[in-house]
Structure formats: C-alpha cells, structure tokens
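Protocol step 4 of 5: obtain the predicted structure for the target chain.
Materials: sequence only (see below). No template structures provided, no constraints applied. The aim of this step is simply to have a reference model before the mutagenesis design in step 5. Sequence pasted as it appears in the construct record:
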Amino acid sequence: MDRLERGLIYTVIVQTAMPIEVIYISMKMAQWSTGGMVRLMPQILLSIVGFILIVIGLVCYLVWVRRRTPRHRLVVWSWIVLEACNVGLVIAMAAQWRNYYPGLLSSLVMVVALVNLGDAMVTTRLRRTVSTP
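Step 4 output (structure tokens):
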C-alpha cells in the first residue's frame, strides 16, 4: 500500500468520524435545548451527507485507486474537492453559529488529511515525471 492509498483511506476514516461526532454531539445538545429535534435538522442532513461521502470514498478506493485504473488520479482529485467542500460547509456553519458546531473538530482533522493526500498526489506525480527519461 503506497502513500496515495494510505492517504485516501485516512480521509475515509476521518470522514467516518465526522457524522458520528455530529450525531453524538447533536443529541447531547438536543437534551438541553428547548427546540429539541426541530433544531437538529441541519445536523441530521449533514450526517446523512457524511455517510454518503463514506460510501463514495470507499468506492473510489476499491474501484479506481486500488486497481490503478487510468483515471484514478482524476478520481482522487475529485474526492479532495468534494471533501474540501464538505469541510468548508461545516466551517461556514460554525462561523454562522459563532460557536462550536458539531463536526468542526473532525473537519479540522480532515483539513490535515486532505493536505496530506494532496501532497501525496503531487509528489507521486513529480516522482513519476522525474524518474522517466
């Protein structure tokens, strides 16, 4: 397993933590809020999107990256953009709340994972370019 595969698996693992964090913290917040479940709708939708992203990430890994199909680099860059949009959404929601938003902690960890994956994409491309005569 090379650095690219490890980076993609790491982002899928962090993505797995995100909806779990959102659900757990949202349920704890709902116990103390007067709105209850009505206020949880954005968090529930964010969790559903998170679980869909997990499935997409696993499909990307198993179908394209692991088999090294010709389009695996395009798929990984698409995954990076998709996850960056997800992270941006969570950070924007936290900024709107001006407080901690469920999923913010794992979103910040995801930023590190995406930078690592992007670096793996660039260095594997550079290594391949330099090594060919």
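Step 4 remarks: The chain is about 80% helix and 0% strand. The CA atoms of residues 21 and 118 lie 25 Å apart.
Proceed to step 5.
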